[in-house]
Protein backbone atom coordinates (compact mmCIF):
# COMPACT_ATOMS: atom_id res chain seq x y z
CA UNK A 1 0.00 0.00 0.00
CA UNK A 2 1.40 3.99 -0.35
CA UNK A 3 1.79 8.58 0.83
CA UNK A 4 3.71 11.55 -1.05
CA UNK A 5 4.32 15.32 -1.77
CA UNK A 6 1.97 17.84 -3.31
CA UNK A 7 2.46 19.63 -6.61
CA UNK A 8 0.43 22.63 -7.62
CA UNK A 9 -0.11 23.20 -11.33
CA UNK A 10 -0.37 26.86 -12.39
CA UNK A 11 -3.75 27.00 -14.13
CA UNK A 12 -5.98 25.50 -13.09
CA UNK A 13 -4.55 25.19 -9.57
CA UNK A 14 -4.16 21.51 -8.73
CA UNK A 15 -2.51 19.99 -5.67
CA UNK A 16 -1.19 16.54 -6.54
CA UNK A 17 -0.04 13.88 -4.09
CA UNK A 18 3.07 12.78 -5.92
CA UNK A 19 3.79 9.26 -4.76
CA UNK A 20 0.54 7.61 -4.41
CA UNK A 21 -2.31 9.82 -3.31
CA UNK A 22 -4.85 11.22 -5.74
CA UNK A 23 -4.70 14.96 -6.49
CA UNK A 24 -6.50 17.47 -4.33
CA UNK A 25 -8.33 20.02 -6.45
CA UNK A 26 -8.42 23.57 -5.16
CA UNK A 27 -10.91 26.23 -6.20
CA UNK A 28 -9.90 28.05 -9.38
CA UNK A 29 -10.64 31.78 -9.06
CA UNK A 30 -11.67 31.85 -12.73
CA UNK A 31 -14.19 29.09 -12.05
CA UNK A 32 -12.75 26.69 -14.66
CA UNK A 33 -12.74 22.93 -14.08
CA UNK A 34 -9.46 21.09 -13.42
CA UNK A 35 -7.96 18.92 -16.12
CA UNK A 36 -9.18 15.33 -16.28
CA UNK A 37 -5.68 13.86 -16.05
CA UNK A 38 -2.61 14.80 -14.02
CA UNK A 39 0.82 13.20 -14.59
CA UNK A 40 3.49 13.53 -11.89
CA UNK A 41 7.07 12.24 -11.72
CA UNK A 42 8.82 11.89 -8.34
CA UNK A 43 12.25 11.00 -7.02
CA UNK A 44 12.79 10.02 -3.41
CA UNK A 45 15.55 9.05 -1.01
CA UNK A 46 15.32 7.54 2.49
CA UNK A 47 18.23 7.00 4.87
CA UNK A 48 17.99 4.27 7.51
CA UNK A 49 20.46 2.72 9.91
CA UNK A 50 20.86 -0.48 7.87
CA UNK A 51 20.17 0.59 4.28
CA UNK A 52 19.64 3.43 1.86
CA UNK A 53 16.52 3.61 -0.32
CA UNK A 54 16.48 5.40 -3.66
CA UNK A 55 13.38 5.43 -5.83
CA UNK A 56 11.23 7.01 -8.50
CA UNK A 57 7.53 6.92 -9.34
CA UNK A 58 5.21 7.97 -12.15
CA UNK A 59 1.62 8.77 -11.16
CA UNK A 60 -1.16 9.14 -13.73
CA UNK A 61 -4.21 10.48 -11.97
CA UNK A 62 -7.61 10.73 -13.64
CA UNK A 63 -10.91 11.87 -12.22
CA UNK A 64 -12.31 8.31 -12.16
CA UNK A 65 -9.28 6.03 -12.61
CA UNK A 66 -5.51 6.35 -12.54
CA UNK A 67 -2.30 4.40 -12.27
CA UNK A 68 1.07 4.33 -10.56
CA UNK A 69 4.42 2.84 -11.63
CA UNK A 70 7.26 2.77 -9.13
CA UNK A 71 10.77 1.48 -8.50
CA UNK A 72 12.92 1.45 -5.35
CA UNK A 73 16.53 0.30 -5.01
CA UNK A 74 17.53 -0.84 -1.53
CA UNK A 75 21.29 -0.69 -0.90
CA UNK A 76 22.41 -3.11 1.81
CA UNK A 77 25.93 -2.79 3.26
CA UNK A 78 28.27 -5.79 2.95
CA UNK A 79 31.11 -6.55 5.37
CA UNK A 80 34.69 -6.40 4.16
CA UNK A 81 34.40 -3.29 2.04
CA UNK A 82 32.58 -5.04 -0.82
CA UNK A 83 30.04 -3.08 -2.92
CA UNK A 84 26.60 -3.09 -1.27
CA UNK A 85 24.01 -5.69 -2.18
CA UNK A 86 21.09 -4.23 -4.09
CA UNK A 87 17.45 -5.22 -3.79
CA UNK A 88 15.06 -4.06 -6.53
CA UNK A 89 11.41 -3.38 -5.66
CA UNK A 90 8.85 -2.57 -8.36
CA UNK A 91 5.11 -1.94 -8.39
CA UNK A 92 2.36 -1.22 -10.91
CA UNK A 93 -1.18 -0.47 -9.71
CA UNK A 94 -4.45 0.98 -10.94
CA UNK A 95 -6.15 3.49 -8.63
CA UNK A 96 -9.69 4.69 -7.87
CA UNK A 97 -10.76 7.70 -5.76
CA UNK A 98 -12.43 6.82 -2.44
CA UNK A 99 -13.08 10.39 -1.33
CA UNK A 100 -12.62 13.81 -2.89
CA UNK A 101 -13.26 17.32 -1.58
CA UNK A 102 -11.71 20.65 -2.54
CA UNK A 103 -8.94 20.06 0.02
CA UNK A 104 -8.77 16.29 0.57
CA UNK A 105 -8.38 13.27 -1.66
CA UNK A 106 -8.02 9.54 -0.87
CA UNK A 107 -7.61 6.67 -3.28
CA UNK A 108 -7.41 2.86 -3.31
CA UNK A 109 -4.90 0.97 -5.44
CA UNK A 110 -4.75 -2.58 -6.83
CA UNK A 111 -2.01 -4.14 -8.93
CA UNK A 112 1.21 -6.18 -8.93
CA UNK A 113 4.50 -6.03 -7.01
CA UNK A 114 7.91 -7.55 -7.70
CA UNK A 115 11.08 -7.97 -5.64
CA UNK A 116 14.41 -8.98 -7.21
CA UNK A 117 17.14 -10.09 -4.79
CA UNK A 118 20.63 -11.44 -5.57
CA UNK A 119 19.42 -15.04 -5.08
CA UNK A 120 15.73 -14.97 -6.07
CA UNK A 121 12.87 -13.01 -7.65
CA UNK A 122 9.32 -12.73 -6.35
CA UNK A 123 6.01 -11.53 -7.82
CA UNK A 124 2.80 -10.84 -5.90
CA UNK A 125 -0.59 -9.12 -6.11
CA UNK A 126 -0.59 -5.87 -4.14
CA UNK A 127 -2.93 -3.35 -2.53
CA UNK A 128 -2.49 0.25 -1.49
CA UNK A 129 -4.19 3.34 -0.14
CA UNK A 130 -2.98 6.94 -0.26
CA UNK A 131 -4.21 10.41 0.67
CA UNK A 132 -3.36 14.10 0.49
CA UNK A 133 -4.66 17.03 2.54
CA UNK A 134 -4.17 20.70 1.64
CA UNK A 135 -3.76 22.90 4.74
CA UNK A 136 -2.79 26.57 4.35
CA UNK A 137 -1.26 28.06 1.20
CA UNK A 138 1.45 25.71 -0.15
CA UNK A 139 1.47 23.61 3.05
CA UNK A 140 -0.10 20.15 3.18
CA UNK A 141 0.06 16.62 4.54
CA UNK A 142 0.33 13.33 2.68
CA UNK A 143 0.53 9.64 3.55
CA UNK A 144 0.44 6.27 1.83
CA UNK A 145 0.83 2.58 2.56
CA UNK A 146 0.97 -0.38 0.17
CA UNK A 147 2.03 -4.00 0.33
CA UNK A 148 1.44 -7.67 -0.34
CA UNK A 149 1.23 -10.84 1.75
CA UNK A 150 2.22 -13.79 -0.48
CA UNK A 151 4.48 -15.37 -1.75
CA UNK A 152 6.65 -12.81 0.04
CA UNK A 153 5.59 -10.08 2.46
CA UNK A 154 6.18 -6.40 1.84
CA UNK A 155 4.76 -3.36 3.64
CA UNK A 156 5.91 0.11 2.51
CA UNK A 157 4.57 3.16 4.35
CA UNK A 158 5.37 6.87 4.25
CA UNK A 159 3.98 10.10 5.73
CA UNK A 160 5.20 13.65 5.34
CA UNK A 161 4.67 17.40 5.29
CA UNK A 162 4.45 18.89 1.82
CA UNK A 163 5.21 22.21 0.15
CA UNK A 164 3.90 22.99 -3.34
CA UNK A 165 5.29 25.62 -5.69
CA UNK A 166 3.43 25.67 -9.02
CA UNK A 167 4.62 22.50 -10.82
CA UNK A 168 7.26 21.51 -8.26
CA UNK A 169 6.61 19.83 -4.91
CA UNK A 170 8.68 18.84 -1.89
CA UNK A 171 7.81 16.38 0.88
CA UNK A 172 9.81 15.84 4.07
CA UNK A 173 8.74 12.89 6.19
CA UNK A 174 9.42 9.36 7.38
CA UNK A 175 9.45 6.05 5.47
CA UNK A 176 9.24 2.50 6.81
CA UNK A 177 9.78 -0.69 4.79
CA UNK A 178 9.20 -4.27 5.98
CA UNK A 179 10.25 -7.31 3.93
CA UNK A 180 9.97 -11.03 4.65
CA UNK A 181 10.95 -13.80 2.19
CA UNK A 182 8.97 -16.35 4.28
CA UNK A 183 11.86 -18.80 4.12
CA UNK A 184 11.86 -19.07 0.34
CA UNK A 185 15.55 -18.19 0.11
CA UNK A 186 16.30 -21.45 1.95
CA UNK A 187 19.65 -22.00 3.68
CA UNK A 188 21.07 -18.78 2.23
CA UNK A 189 18.79 -16.81 4.55
CA UNK A 190 17.90 -19.37 7.21
CA UNK A 191 16.92 -17.86 10.54
CA UNK A 192 16.84 -14.32 9.13
CA UNK A 193 13.86 -14.10 6.82
CA UNK A 194 12.73 -10.55 7.56
CA UNK A 195 14.14 -7.02 7.43
CA UNK A 196 12.78 -3.70 8.67
CA UNK A 197 14.09 -0.31 7.52
CA UNK A 198 12.92 3.02 8.89
CA UNK A 199 14.25 6.54 8.53
CA UNK A 200 13.82 10.11 7.30
CA UNK A 201 12.66 10.54 3.71
CA UNK A 202 12.77 13.33 1.13
CA UNK A 203 10.63 13.39 -2.04
CA UNK A 204 10.86 15.82 -4.96
CA UNK A 205 7.99 15.94 -7.46
CA UNK A 206 7.42 17.48 -10.87
CA UNK A 207 3.99 17.86 -12.48
CA UNK A 208 4.48 16.88 -16.13
CA UNK A 209 0.90 17.52 -17.24
How much is the radius of gyration in Å? 18 Å
Q: Find the count of extended strands (DSSP E, 2+ residues).
A: 13
N-to-C span: 25 Å
**CATH level-3 fold name:** Lipocalin
- Main beta sheet: strand number and arrangement? 10 strands, antiparallel, barrel
Number of helices: 0
CATH top level label: Mainly Beta
The poorly predicted ranges are 1-5, 8-34
Binned strand content? over 45%
Question: Helices and strands: which structural class?
Answer: mainly beta
Explain what this protein looks like in three dimensions.
There is one protein chain. The strands form two sheets. A ten-stranded antiparallel β-barrel has the order 4-5-6-7-8-9-10-11-12-13. A three-stranded antiparallel beta sheet has the order 1-2-3, with no helix packed on it. The chain has 209 residues and is mostly beta strands. It starts with 5 loop residues before the first strand and ends with a strand. 0% of the residues lie in helices and 65% in strands. It has one domain (6-207): Lipocalin (Beta Barrel), CATH 2.40.128.
SSE map:
Elements: E1 6-9, E2 14-17, E3 24-25, E4 37-47, E5 52-62, E6 66-76, E7 85-100, E8 104-116, E9 121-134, E10 139-148, E11 153-165, E12 168-180, E13 194-207
Antiparallel strand pairs: 1-2, 2-3, 4-5, 4-13, 5-6, 6-7, 7-8, 8-9, 9-10, 10-11, 11-12, 12-13
